[in-house]
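A brief tutorial aside. Many learners find it easier to grasp structure tokens once they have seen a single protein encoded end to end. The record that follows does exactly this for Peptidase S9 prolyl oligopeptidase catalytic domain-containing protein. Read the sequence first, then the structure, and try to relate runs of similar tokens to stretches of the chain.
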Amino acid sequence: MTAVIGMYGYDGRTDSQLPSSSPHAHLHDGAPPLLLLHGERDSVVPVQWTRGFARAWADVSEQPVVYTELRGAQHSFDYFDSLRGRVAVDQIEAFAAWVRSRPALSRRRNSPCGKRPSSS
């Protein structure tokens, strides 16, 4: 796998429990680079789930983790044309271009964001 791009933060939960098929159950040091986008005001999937998943991935994987929380955005923030949707598209394009341009063994120090997810 080259990279993972996740939107809206759904990770297999139907409540606070994680199923064995959840991406959480498959984290390892060789996990690929990750870009997560989530709306700050998502009323469908709690933003705390995605924050925690980004931290867990960053703690385990040797590859970069980029977490973007779109201020004021709801779930499905890209369904209609909007500034938030355009920001998401721009970030996805930049992340994909970065992934395609890097050597296969590049490490976290070359991340497009340069930092790990915060614990907020």
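Self-check: Confidence is low (pLDDT under 50) at residues 106-111, 113-120. If you spotted this yourself, you are ready for the next section.
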